[in-house]
Amino acid sequence: QVQLVESGGGSVQAGGSTRLSCLVSGDRWSSTCLGWFRQAPGKEREGVAAIDADVAGVQSYANFVKGRFTISVDKAKNTLYLQMNSLKPEDTAMYFCAADVTRAYLCGSWSGYNSWGQGTQVTVS
Predict the structure, then answer these.
(1) How would you classify the pairing of strands 79-84 and 69-74?
(2) What's the pLDDT tens digit per position in 87-99?
(3) 23-51 burial by CB neighbour count: b if 16+ within 10 A, else e?
(4) CA–CA separation, 93 vs 119, rounded Å?
(5) Residue 41, by phi and psi: left (phi above 0), alpha (psi -120 to 50) or beta?
(6) Is-contact 46 38, C-beta < 8 A?
(7) What is the pLDDT of residue 36?
(8) Following CA atoms 115, 86, 64, 112 in sequence, which dihedral angle do they give, to the nearest 10 degrees?
């Protein structure tokens, strides 16, 4: 089982930047799919970015964040990051980090993630 705890976020002006962090612990997390999701009020949760935490480090992004957000993982610090640049009001949402310990490939296939953090709010105005 994998445990995830997000931090970061808060209120940001449009056009600004912020970085989310997710402290990851548990078995096998360093060779699994890790991802960031978000959910805005009244909307369904959607995948934002994913990374193969194994040696390949393949990244996947939703079209609406390509070129603006960057996902990365620091195994020495047990931390997953989401660097968010050029933020827009429509990026306002609760952001969740997640893991799928059953695979380390096709991490941009958003279904199957089965371990979740509690979420951190990002508000862009």
Answers:
(1) antiparallel
(2) 999 999 999 999 9
(3) ebeeeebeebbbbbbbeeeeeebebbbbb
(4) 10
(5) beta
(6) yes
(7) 98
(8) -10
